[in-house]
């Protein structure tokens, strides 16, 4: 099942729920997920279309099931999620693709019920499906949600669609910030213009030809995309390779690796996110500063240094090798034990996972690399959930610099963003134990690469 799938985006062993999977982009995404190894629960209102999607997946050797439901009905959504998990297992990936176009007309001439129905499907639907899967994802410490959106430009005569999809972008941003400490990622994804039943209606209906005649130029000038492009983007986001981009809105035209490599600029300039820009306003700036400080309240930073009797390359290698990390991060003689060995994926956007058992309780921590400069510096986000023994959730930043100190290496670690003084003190004790373990490991011999 690997023909057509992104070579670096395996979903083997994972379960995905795809809404709007009976046709169009949703069906293409469901099949791409299956080709990458996922078991797929296909959800839509039309059982006949879902059965077609399931047959297509199974014909290529994949595993899938159909769950019919209206995404605006909370009871139906809950039942569909329960059925999908009973048949395939816990849901790891939610792809919120189901959507409707809504009226194409001047707002004052639209049917208010049809206008609001678009909001119900496009915003309430993803809200209900997300709410149905989030508690279990958080309990397991992992999961990804991808919400299908569109450009946030104020398109005239598309007010229901544009308003609901723009609201979904903001919902995605809010949710991503909330669940990041729990090891979850949320993305907003714009598919680009693809020839689907929805776009055909915009092209050929009387209202489409009257109110949005410009839409045809996208196809006439070859600016539309093949359906495989958004399917492959959804696959990349679902794979975990780009969890560092959680909270952002991306499209098939974007280079995800370039965005990851430019994360510092992306975050500073709030790129790929909704933003209201205005002329300078000191009074408003004070309000915004208070709001920003309130949402990112911390208790200060931790700064530690240690000189180790080894060259910079050896010390750096010990931070990116899982065999080495398993030995220095949790010393063998201490009371803490690994639940499962750590994983280390040493690339920007790659993760470090820590699952350990201590006298105070189990803890699950996830690091996501934001910078890697061999032998010189590395940086990562260090996040944990509400069940962390020292208090949580937490979403912090760590930088480690490697500096020549004669034949030895001085490591300088800065850890910022602690939610409480207790967590700061606990991490200080932990990092000091790590430094002791690292020193002992480096004294024993070479660190394998």
What does this 3D model show about the protein?
The protein has 15 helices and 14 strands. With 449 residues, the protein is α/β, with parallel strands linked by helices. The protein has 2 domains: 15-269, Rossmann fold (3-Layer(aba) Sandwich); 298-444, Alpha-D-Glucose-1,6-Bisphosphate, Chain A, domain 4. It has a 7-stranded parallel β-sheet, sandwiched between helices. A hairpin with a 2-residue loop joins β10 (351-358) and β11. α13 crosses α14 (322-328). The model is unreliable at 1-5 (pLDDT under 50).
Name the beta content range. Answer: 15-25%
Tell me the number of structural domains: 2
Helical coverage, percent range? 40-55%
Cα separation of the termini? 32 Å
CATH topology of the largest domain: Rossmann fold
Strand tally:
14
Query: Could you give the order of the helices and strands?
Result: EHEHEHEHEHEHHHHEHHHEHHEEEEEEH
What is the fourth-level CATH superfamily of the largest domain?
NAD(P)-binding Rossmann-like Domain
Please mark out the parts with pLDDT under 50 across 5 or more consecutive residues, or reply none.
1-5
Q: What is the molecular shape?
A: globular
**Overall residue-averaged pLDDT value:** 89
The strand order across the widest sheet is 3-2-1-4-5-6-7
The largest β sheet comes out as:
7 strands, parallel
CATH-defined architecture of the largest domain: 3-Layer(aba) Sandwich
How many DSSP H or I helices? 15
CATH class of the largest domain: Alpha Beta
Q: What's the gyration radius in Å?
A: 24 Å
Secondary structure class reads alpha/beta
